[in-house]
Automatic annotation (TrEMBL):
Similarity comment: Belongs to the SusD family.
Superkingdom in the source lineage: Bacteria
Record's protein name: RagB/SusD family nutrient uptake outer membrane protein
A GO term from the CC aspect: cell outer membrane
Localization of this protein: Cell outer membrane
Span of domain SusD-like N-terminal: 104-224
InterPro entries: SusD-like_N (IPR033985), SusD_RagB_dom (IPR012944), TPR-like_helical_dom_sf (IPR011990)
UniProt cross-references to SUPFAM superfamilies, sorted A to Z: TPR-like
Key words, A-Z: Cell outer membrane, Membrane, Signal
């Protein structure tokens, strides 16, 4: 049976320097009960624990426990927020405050915590003697991948950011171009060092599920290239993922968002959560605590009313888009009910309750749209109020790769070939063959079709606003976006990125605030 990796947290100590008449070396004394950077990195097991700590930064509030999905989702036209919490409410209204770094500031902090931990691995592991040199290579490959992933998020959300390549304290702010170049360089290095799977390796990580793989590194390299309009390079990267021959779409779309079907054939990289691992406390951030669990607060944050906080809801536009095209059998797109909980005339059950009966005495909720994706609504959970979801976050799916590949084919002049890869995603949910219903599309028509397909397939998975921004729609289609989602009326130029947290500006000399703030 495959073992899901258990993520340990490495405690990093610091030195307190004081001015006094005694010698400085007399003041610097290490607690014999606490590991230091000098004493820790001794053998292969230490190296493995070190890389596990880098994964650990994916699990706290700043990243995928809660904040990062919110930052990625709320600015899109597939979501809206009526949260009573201003910091969350204002994300989708492009009005995050420099005076209140809640959510976006926590994300920024945690990305750089992850980068710092990755840099510790990259600085210390090369000097450790390994009996298994392949294990050493894999650990370093994972460090490059994870540093690239954290930096990917940082530059994607915050534009001009520091690019730390060492564990030094201060790092100057770089341009987007410089940061993206480093992201791509890290993924490129990772590709050469990572295995396709851990099932066929020997060593301490043999059989581990959830670690970064060659496919994940190639896919993220392609995505970074796509975000920088390097269509030819991105096309080659996505084709490399496809040609690995290890990924395929699962038969049931729902399997991508439930605990029972984690790490499936469609998952290229996912963040590993578990109700069984660790303690029961949530990892809100800061210094790791022994009682922290490995669970997510995403479910309670997005949950339907009565089952969680309902801080995020789907837009009517998303619902209507699902209704535009029926399956070949004349049925509603099955992705609708996986994505959105609503008063379906054919019946809708969530958390063991009939939707129409549960909300019968509340007309506004009876006619509302709620998020169902990544909810524990199919099993025996009564609600999400214990804050502890164990559902893994699938942050790179094969369906996304297929659609990105189709986009690059279209952008590089091969619109006809793009049909095949779009249709693979449509076939899973039994939608008509595009070659029959929309033959001979132009490049622009195919682009519009791919945009539609991405909107539905990847709804509420943190992709939509990235697409809107990279396609230039904030300039060319802002009025259209406002019609689809009134929150776009608050958009101001520059607010497509979050502000650099004021603490970073105060503590890192020379750092400038992003335009628009």
């Amino acid at each position: 049976m495959k073992n899901k990796i258990i993520l340990y947290t490495l405690l990093i100590s610091g030195l307190v320097l004081m001015n006094s008449c005694v010698k400085e070396e007399d003041l610097v004394q290490n607690d014999p009960n606490t590991e230091t950077t000098e004493s820790f990195w001794q053998d292969a097991n230490d190296a493995l624990l070190g890389i596990n700590s880098v994964y650990g930064s994916l699990l706290t509030d700043g990243t995928y426990m809660r904040s990062t999905p919110l930052l990625l989702d709320l600015k899109g036209d597939d979501s809206r927020s009526q949260s009573p919490w201003g910091a969350m409410f204002n994300v989708g209204r492009f009005n995050s405050s420099i005076a209140d770094p809640s959510i976006y500031g926590w994300a920024f902090e945690t990305y750089y915590q992850g980068i710092y931990r990755a840099n510790q691995v990259l600085e210390n592991v090369p000097d450790i003697e390994f009996e298994n040199e392949d294990l050493k290579t894999r650990i370093l490959g994972q460090a490059y991948f994870l540093r690239g992933l954290y930096l990917f998020h940082a530059v994607d959300l915050f534009k001009n950011v520091p690019v730390p390549l060492s564990t030094e304290i201060y790092h100057e702010q770089k341009t987007q171009e410089e940061a993206w170049a480093q992201v791509m360089d890290d993924f490129s290095k990772a590709i050469e060092m990572l295995p396709v799977s851990y099932n066929d390796v020997s060593g301490l990580d043999a059989g581990d599920v959830g670690r970064a793989t060659k496919g994940a590194a190639i896919a993220y390299l392609g995505k970074a290239q796509l975000f920088n309009d390097q269509f030819e390079s991105a096309k080659q990267s996505f084709k490399r993922v496809i040609d690995l021959g290890v990924y395929s779409l699962v038969d049931d779309y729902k399997d991508n968002f439930t605990k029972e079907n984690e790490n499936n054939s469609e998952s290229i990289f996912e963040v590993q959560f578990s109700r069984e691992a660790g303690g029961v406390d949530l990892g809100w951030g800061g210094a790791p605590q022994s009682g922290w669990g490995k669970t997510s607060a995403r479910a309670i944050t997005y949950a339907p009313r009565g089952f969680g906080w309902t801080d995020v809801q789907p837009t009517q536009t998303l619902f209507d888009e699902f209704m535009k095209e029926k399956t070949v059998n004349g049925e509603v797109d099955p992705r609708l009910n996986v994505t959105i909980a609503w008063n379906d005339p054919n019946g809708y059950t969530l958390y063991g309750h009939d939707f129409s009966e549960f909300y019968a005495n509340n007309p506004s909720d009876l006619n509302a749209l709620f998020v169902n994706k990544y909810q524990n609504s199919y099993g025996d959970r009564a609600d999400e109020f214990d804050w502890r979801s164990g559902i893994n976050e699938r942050i790179m799916r094969y369906a996304d790769v297929l659609l990105m590949y189709a986009e690059t084919l279209n952008e590089t002049g091969n619109t006809d070939a793009a049909y095949d890869y779009v249709q693979m995603v449509r076939d899973r949910v039994n939608l008509p063959d595009l070659r029959e219903v929309k033959p001979n599309m132009t490049k622009q028509e195919m682009f519009e079709q791919i945009a539609h397909e991405r909107f539905l397939e990847l709804a509420l998975e943190g992709h939509r606003f990235d697409d809107i921004r990279r396609w230039g729609w904030l300039d060319s289609r802002l009025d259209w976006l406002i019609q689809r989602d009134p929150e776009f009326q608050f958009y101001q130029e520059g607010r497509e990125y979050f502000p650099i947290p004021q603490l970073e500006i105060d503590n890192n000399p020379g750092t400038e605030q992003n335009p628009g703030y």
